Amino acid sequence: MCGIVGLFLKSPCMREALGGMFAPMLIEMTDRGPDSAGVAVYRGGERGRTKITAFHPRSDFDWDSLLGDAESDRGATANVEINGSHAVVTTNSVSIDIGKLEADFPGLQVMSVGQSIEIYKETGLPTEIAEAFKVSEMNGTHAVGHTRMATESAVTTAGSHPFSTGPDFCLVHNGSLSNHNRLRDLLRRRAGIEFKTENDTEVAAAFVSHRLAAGQSLKATLEDCVKELDGFYTFVVGTKNGFAVLRDPFACKPAVLAETSGFVAFASEYRALASLPGINEAEVWEPEPAVVYNWEKAA
Amino acid sequence: MNSLKSNAATIDLCERTLREANFALQASNGSGESGYFKVTNPGGAHAIACGLDAPVDVEIRGHAGYFCAGMNKLARVRVVGNAGQGVAENMMSGLVWVEGDVSQCAGATAHGGLLVVDGNAAARCGISLKGGDIVVKGNVGHMSMFMAQAGRLVVLGDAGDSLGDSIYEARIYVRGQVGTLGSDCLEKPMGAEHLAELGELLDRSGCEKVDAGEFRRFGSARNLYNFKVENLDDY
Asked: In what order do the strands lie in the sheet containing A242-247?
């Protein structure tokens, strides 16, 4: 069991309230996943500047030491914003090498890279994680979250969700995949993708982001998931402009969607939506199995 | 099912725990004025109004979570909203009426009573039904009535794939389209006795104006009941 939640704001005037609406959703799903929790939030972002969100297990890690790499291009500027055990490095450097960054700073784990995505995830209770990263104070356009009850791999920060395997991309998963070892092997050999964990969800994320990078649409890619992934899943996928939902054809794992004029919200269970403003007037429904649901903000 | 009396006791789930609420509901013997309850702010909580065994009337004003009115006996429970997985699971008798949609496994293993869903039911509606009746005014999802042994499912809308897979002596009536039939499930002719029992179920579900003649009946082909010696090599 795991809990997943997603919130996509249609109305720009609600963006300041994103975290305030989202944090209770995440915390309500504690029963479904008390091992670890994580949030991908999409906020801000300037063209030409990349946000790198990273985690370091040492609380005294000198985050400013990353600025050297982040400013290595001629004229590049960078800044660091620390949030709990994570920090966001924003840079206009075009040649920054994530692999080199992680090699240069042992222990450093890059959680996400993109123009607007930031991922924060940790082991522990969702309420502790929401507090540690001040989730309720976050603004933004959309957010995806996960509370984990581990089945497939170790309870670690790296094994927590969301998984990001491409720019401004993330995926969260409730369920378990049975053909992830074969798929991981295929993606390694044919696409040269490097995996950081033994986790099944990381394989699903890489499967999707690899096809997106090749120019395939999100809808077509998620439809490919139905054909190629074996196992149980409800996925929520975050992209720069929106989010998508997919359930396996057997509908093994729960899912509820709610939509108002102001937002679209997803949760494993309705109770995670019950605190949203205007929920009593929302259209609430269970997404059909093997059907892709996708919302995007106007570019 | 009439709406509740104005003097019904209100249990606000913002103010009382689920356990307190269920204790209060279970403590009533349903007699006189003490048998009417209104549950407010359900907030999708699980197991609301479970294990009732007296003719109490309960109205849940909002969306309920998993296993709402599970194991119900004699009570009449109305949900003014949606209900999550396993609503009226293992119901023995009584009436559970959901005004919205229900998630998967609605009415699973119910031995008796009537579950009415004004909206849609998701996958596996009536799975392993053991004698209860279910009327869904919208659609039902895939694998509905899987291994159902006794009882009836009435669907005014469409039924998803693998309807009635491995069904025993339960009966299914569908007015709309059926995706696919499951193993050993087939369409059967509508006799006078079927029209009569369907009409009676429609009447009890507030569908008096719906014509029983518009439905098709499905049930067991009874080919899976006995071991066939020619299949020996498959084992």
From this structure: A163-166, A169-177, A231-239, A242-247, A293-296
| Predicted complex ipTM exceeds 0.85 | yes
* Dihedrals phi, psi of A18, to nearest 5 degrees: -50, -55
CB B220 within 8 A of CB B181: no
Map residue A157 onto helix, strand or coil.
coil
Task: Name the interface residues of B facing A (CB cutoff 8 Å).
Answer: 43-46, 62-63, 65-66, 82, 84-85, 100-101, 103-104, 122-123, 141-142
Q: Count the helix, strand and coil residues of chain B and give each as a percent rounded to the nearest 5.
A: 15, 25, 60
What's the angle, vertex CA B30, arms to CA B28 and CA B36, rounded to 5?
85
The residue of B12, B39, B61, B63 whose CB has the most chain A CBs within 10 angstroms, and thus the best one to mutate to test that interface, is: B63
DSSP E strand stretches across chain B = 9-12, 36-40, 57-61, 76-79, 95-98, 114-117, 130-136, 150-155, 171-174, 185-188, 216-220
**pLDDT for B90-119, tens place per residue?**
999 999 999 999 999 999 999 999 999 999
- pLDDT tens digits, A247-266: 999 999 999 999 999 999 99
Q: What does the alpha-carbon distance between residue A17 and residue A39 come to, in Å, rounded to a whole number?
A: 15
Token pair in block for residue B51: 């294990």
CB distance A251–B66 less than 8 Å?
Answer: no
Tens digits of per-residue pLDDT, B53-83?
999 999 999 999 999 999 999 999 999 999 9
Question: Residue A136: which H helix or E strand, with range?
Answer: none
